[in-house]
Amino acid sequence: MRTMIALLASAMLVATPGIAQAAPRPDQLAFRDLYKELVETNTTLSSGSCTLAAERMAARLKAAGFTDDQLTLFATPENPKEGGLVAVYPGTSKTAKPILLIAHIDVVEAKREDWERDPFVMVEENGYFYGRGTADDKAQAAVWIDTLIRFKQQRYKPKRTVKVALTCGEETNGAFNGAQWLAANKRDLIDAEFALNEGGGGDSDGKGKVIGQSVQVGEKTFANFRLETRNPGGHSSAPVPANAIYQLAHALAKIGDHDFPVEMTDTTRRFFAEAGAARADEIGKAMVALSKNPADKAAEAIVNSDPFLHSNLRTTCVATMLDGGHAPNALPQRAGANVNCRIFPGHSIESIGAELAGVIGDSGVTITQLPPKRPAPPAPPLDPKVIGPMQKLVDQYWPGLKVVPAMANGYTDATFLGAAGIPTYGMPGMWGDPDGNGAHGLNERMEVRSVYVGRDYMFDLVKAYADKP
Q1: Sign (positive/negative) of CA torsion 316, 321, 326, 331?
Q2: 3-class DSSP state for residue 22?
Q3: Domain stops at, among 338, 369, 400
Q4: Is 209 exposed, middle or buried (0-12, 13-18, 19+ CB in 10 A)?
Q5: Consecutive H or E run containing 461
Q6: Which residues have CB under 8 Å from 256's CB, separation 6+?
Q7: Residue 298, number of CB atoms within 10 A of its CB
Q8: Which CATH number belongs to the domain containing residue 284 in this structure?
Q9: Domain membership flag for residue 238
Q10: pLDDT confidence bin for 12, thresholds 50/70/90
Q11: Backbone region of residue 127 per phi and psi (left: phi > 0; alpha: psi in -120 to 50; beta: other values)
C-alpha cells in the first residue's frame, strides 16, 4: 500500500518550479529497462510471482558483478511464489552499521477489462509511465536495484554497507509477508542502523510543480473487528422486535457517530505546525492553532473538514463489509459486519476493541478481533542524522521546500522492521499528483520526471548516508 502523504498536495500552496526533464540520459534508459521488466512481471497474489521478480532482479545484480554470497533469494515451501531478495553491497568500515533499503514488489490485483491499457505492460504516454505497480511500489524497488548497479559501475567504496530487501506480501493482509519473515528468521541479514522505505515522498500541484516533500515517521496500527448479532429468527410474516439486522445496524450507527479523541505525537504536532504554516487558508491557520493547543475545539472543527487531517489526529474505525440473513422470507438469524480500525500510536488493539464495546453498549453484539494481529512498534525518532541529509538534498533539488515529518494513516512494512528494532523512514524524492496516481485503482501511473529526478535524489541520499558512518 503506497502511503505517500497526499495531503501535502492540498496543504502546501507555495509552489516551486519543476525540474525540466530533457531527453533521457543513457543511464536513465538503462534504468527504464529495469523498471519496465519489474512492472511487467506480474506479482499479484492471485496469478503472479514475486519469486520470479526477485530472481530477475538478482540476475541483473549478478550481471553487474555481484557475487553469490552477496545475493540471498528466499521463499518458503508453503509460499513458493511469494519470495524475495536481499542484496548486500559491502562497506569499508568495520564499525559503521549498515543502512537498509526496502521495497515491496507485490502489487494490488488489476483486471485487464477495467483498465484503458494492459496493466502489466509499462506504457509511456503524455509524460507518465502507466502500469500496475509503477507507483506502488516498483518505482522505488527499481531505484534500489539500480542504485546497487550504479555503485558497481562506479566502483564506489562506501563506508557503510548498503543492503536492499525486496519483499512480497505488503498489499494483502494475512498473506505471507517477506519483511515479517526476514525480521523473524533472518534478522542478522537485514540488520541496519535504520531503513528507508515507502510512505514519504513528494507532492505536486498536478500541473508539473513540486509543492511538498515529506518523510514518514511512524504509522498507525491496523486491525479488523468482526461484529455479529444472532437470534432465533422466524417467519417474515410475523416480525418481532428482536431482529439481528436491526440490532447490528444500531451498533454500526453508534460507531459511525463516535469520534475518537484528538491526539498528537511529536511527529504529528510538527506536521500540523509546519504544513499548516505553509498554507494560506483557514485550515492552515487551524492546523497551527491545534499544534499549539490540541484542546482547541474551534480549530479542530475546521481541521476535521479534511478527511486526511481528521484521521491523522485520532484513531478511526469504520464499517467496511456487511452480511446477514439467510432467506428473503425469513427473519434474520445472524448479521455481521467488518469494522476496520486504524489505531493511533500508544493504544493496543485490545483497548480499542474494548472502547468499541463501550460505544455500542449492547452485550448482544459480539466483537472479535480478526487475525493477523499486527505489531505496534514505537515511531522512529526524528533523528537529525537521518532527517538532516534529506533536507540538505531537498534544498538542492527543490529550493525553498521543507521536509515535513508526517505520520501515515495506513501502514507499511515499517511495522515489522520497527518491531525488530530497525527504525524505518518513508523517504522523500519521487512525487505524486493530488489524485493519488491511481495507486490501488485504475490506470496507475507515475510522472516520468518524478521517476527520473526522484531516482537521482534517492541515489544521492543513499550515498550521503553511506559516506558518513
Answers
A1: positive
A2: coil
A3: 369
A4: middle
A5: helix 448-467
A6: 318, 319
A7: 10
A8: 3.30.70.360
A9: yes
A10: very low
A11: left
pLDDT at 3 over 50: no
* 129 found inside a domain: yes
Q: Are residues 44 and 118 in the same domain?
A: yes
Q: How far apart are CA 269 and CA 219, in angstroms?
A: 14
Per residue, the 3-state secondary structure of 328-366, as one string, reads CCEECCEEEEEEEEEECCCCCHHHHHHHHHHHHCCCCCE
pLDDT digits (tens, 9 = 90+) for 452-466: 999 999 999 999 999
Pairing of β 210-219 and β 201-204: antiparallel
User: Rounded to whole angstroms, how far apart are CA atoms 38 and 57?
Assistant: 8
Phi, psi (rounded to 5 degrees) for 349: -60, -40
The reply to whether 77 falls in a domain is: yes
DSSP string, 298-322: HHHHHHTTSHHHHHHTS-EEEEEEE
Q: Do 282 and 352 share a domain, yes or no? A: yes
Quick one: 440 and 310 in the same domain? no
Q: What is the pLDDT of residue 345?
A: 93
**Structural domain tally of the chain?**
2
If asked whether residues 133 and 188 sit together in one domain, one would say yes
Give the pairing of strands 123-125 and 128-130: antiparallel
CA dist., res. 178 & res. 164, Å (int): 13
Same domain, 48 and 136: yes
Of 235, 219, 62, 209, residue with least CA distance to 149: 62
Could you give phi then psi for residue 323, rounded to 5 degrees? -150, 160
